[in-house]
Amino acid sequence: MGESLGADWARAWIIASAEVLADNRVALITLDREIGDGDHGENMDRGFQAALIRLDDLPDTATPGDVFKVVATTLISTVGGAAGPLYGTAFLKASLAVGAAERLDGPALVLALTAARDGIVLRGKAESGDKTMIDAWTPAVDAAAAAVEAGASPHDVLRAAADAAERGAEATEPLVARKGRASYLGERAIGHRDPGAQSSALLLRAAEQVAGAAS
Ligand SMILES: [Mg+2]
Fold first, then answer.
1. C-alpha–C-alpha distance, residues 22 and 149, integer Å
2. Which residues span the domain enclosing 144?
3. What is the CA radius of gyration of the chain?
4. How far is the CA of 131 from the centre of ligand 1 (A)?
5. Rounded distance from Cα 169 to ligand 1 centre (Å)
6. Distance 123 CA to ligand 1 centre (A)
7. Number of domains observed in the structure of the chain
8. Residues 98-148: pLDDT tens digits?
9. Which residues surround ligand 1, an ion (CB under 5 A)?
10. What separation in Å is there between the alpha carbon of 156 and the centre of ligand 1?
11. What is the value of pTM for the model shown?
């Protein structure tokens, strides 16, 4: 079981994500108030609470890809602002990348993370260094791929991704934003962490923590 993660992990990840987003609702609202419109914490909390309810309707035979797809459609239909379509696309692309696989090994996790990141890039049209969630996702994808190359377990692959995402989120602080509302602030955005990068790091840490609990 330690060499792959199944739907039990995927469900546990979404449950843990909903929990951590509820715990960080005010912190994310505060970050988004500083350089955006302040809706990020509320949107993410509401979206993942809605996803939790829909997860309950999935049959016991559901695959990790089925879990990701339910999250995707829920976020796309219930979350306003930029975050819903971006995270919804990420989960949808991850779902397509893993297909009908019942269990995900390290390489499959990298495929899913890469597809998610590519979906966000396509949808948001942001590049690395624009002070967006991409600045958490791209280091996470790179670190996960390097971990797989080094023969890491799925849990260690996700740990590498989460560690890199946290560093990436922190590294958005000195940046000037080139996308979204924060870009209107010019140099006034300097010193503030991008809320989307922060929520991305929280989600990837949750993925790692439940993988550790499962193995
Ligand atoms: Mg916002």
1. 35
2. 5-214
3. 16
4. 13
5. 16
6. 16
7. 1
8. 999 999 999 999 999 999 999 999 999 999 999 999 999 999 999 999 999
9. 32, 36-37, 39-40, 81
10. 32
11. 0.96
